[in-house]
């Protein structure tokens, strides 16, 4: 398991993007064709910051730091552990790439994503 990226939700998408590009020298890079606005900011050949527009939905908000993502290598082991612990999770597939994602929340409403290569 390794850290993959962080996701920041903001109501100033352009301002946050411009600031991170300017200060951290990240580059706006390729992003799958999601149905919502955002940017993927790349550093060292990898998208390390995902920016998405804040939906202003207090029922689903996790704050400005929307989620922390890890890269996994055994989808079945993770989902089995989540089921055993009674933790609900959401499976998703990234449009265009087929990469699989598992989202779940832990203590303090922290949203975790674990991404896996396509089957």
Q: Which characteristics define this entry?
A:
18% helix, 43% strand, 119 residues, 8 strands
Which helices and strands occur, and which strands form pairs?
Layout: E1 2-10, H1 13-24, E2 27-29, E3 38-43, E4 46-53, E5 65-71, H2 75-84, E6 90-93, E7 100-106, E8 110-116
Parallel strand pairs: 1-4, 5-8
Antiparallel strand pairs: 1-5, 2-3, 3-4, 6-7, 7-8
Polypeptide structure, described:
This protein is of the alpha+beta class. It has 2 helices and 8 strands, in the order βαββββαβββ. The protein has helices spanning 13-24, 75-84, and strands at 2-10, 27-29, 38-43, 46-53, 65-71, 90-93, 100-106, 110-116. Strand 3 (38-43) and strand 4 form a beta hairpin. It is globular, with a radius of gyration of 15 Å. The model has no long low-confidence stretch (mean pLDDT 88).
Under CATH at level 1, the class stands as Alpha Beta
Distance between the termini: 18 Å
Number of domains: 1
User: What does the overall shape look like?
Assistant: globular
Number of strands: 8
Biggest sheet strand line-up: 2-3-4-1-5-8-7-6
């Amino acid at each position: 398991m390794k850290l993959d990226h962080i996701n920041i939700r903001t109501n100033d998408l352009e301002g946050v993007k411009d600031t991170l590009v300017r200060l951290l020298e990240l580059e706006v890079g390729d992003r799958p064709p999601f149905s919502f606005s955002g940017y993927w900011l790349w550093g060292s050949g990898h998208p390390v910051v995902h920016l998405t527009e804040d939906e202003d939905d207090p029922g689903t908000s996790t704050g400005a730091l929307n989620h922390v993502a890890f890269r996994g290598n055994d989808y079945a082991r993770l989902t089995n552990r989540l089921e055993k612990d009674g933790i609900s999770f959401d499976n998703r597939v990234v449009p265009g790439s087929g990469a699989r994602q598992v989202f779940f929340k832990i203590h303090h409403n922290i949203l975790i994503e674990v991404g896996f290569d396509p089957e």
